[in-house]
Give the backbone structure.
Amino acid sequence: MQQKTQHKRKKETVAVNSRLIRRPIQRCFAIFLLPTFAAFCIGFLWPFVKGLYLSFCTFTTTSNAKWVGLQNYQKALTDASFLHAFWYTALVAIVSLILINVLSFAVAYALTRKIPGANIYRGVFFMPNLIGGIVLGYIWQRIFNGILPTAIVLNTHYGFWGLIVLMCWQQVGYMMIIYIAGLQSVSEDMLEAARIDGANGWQILWKITIPTVMPSITICTFLTLTNSFKLFDQNMVLNEGRPYIFQNGVQIKTTEMLALNIYNTFYMNAKSRGVGQAKAVLFFILVAAIALIQLRATHEKEVQQ
């Protein structure tokens, strides 16, 4: 019976890979590829190239752009508010990266211990991820303003930890699902062998479970890091980057992250749109570089394991 099944599967594989079936697909692949490729070019590639060009221009609309060279980049890199937003965003990203991944892994680990109602808890933890960022910002703004002694927009420390709490509440459930998938792939035979050899719970966790779920850690670290750097709507709604301080005569929003700083530069002053576009290009390069470095670093650990 088993031999017959294997023979049938082999025949099906040969049939799928036969020239008679592959030739029409190869002949018509453009019909399936072109719509997606056209959408990619129209929706991403052309706007990206146009934006790159505009970062070297002064403009109020895209039709009256005037080439100024590297002037916009010089202004962006010497803008005190942009530099403050960079370091503030980096701090938020580091803290949220640690907290979100530790909490989501802990929840996933607990919910794979076969506790009663585990599926209900998974749904409850995942639900905040389905709520839009703007709605979340308004919800948590109301909550913080109701329990804090002062409005969240008036205190830098409250604004920082407010963003961290909001991000954790939204993203822990999503990362939990990825970690659960990784934990369920850990071999029971390997865990049983470790218990027979006398390994305790912590030793099994650090020496077997965590190394085995490194692919999940790579994905969650990448998503958390990029989401933290790209955070915009929650920052805008929760505290608008406030409160303000003045540094060398320049107004700086103390809780303003990079994406919000770029938005404010571009839309608050029509004469600075070129500078805002230059900041957006620098922002893209920064996020892409950090993401690639992180992926390479964690992927190397996967290979070693």
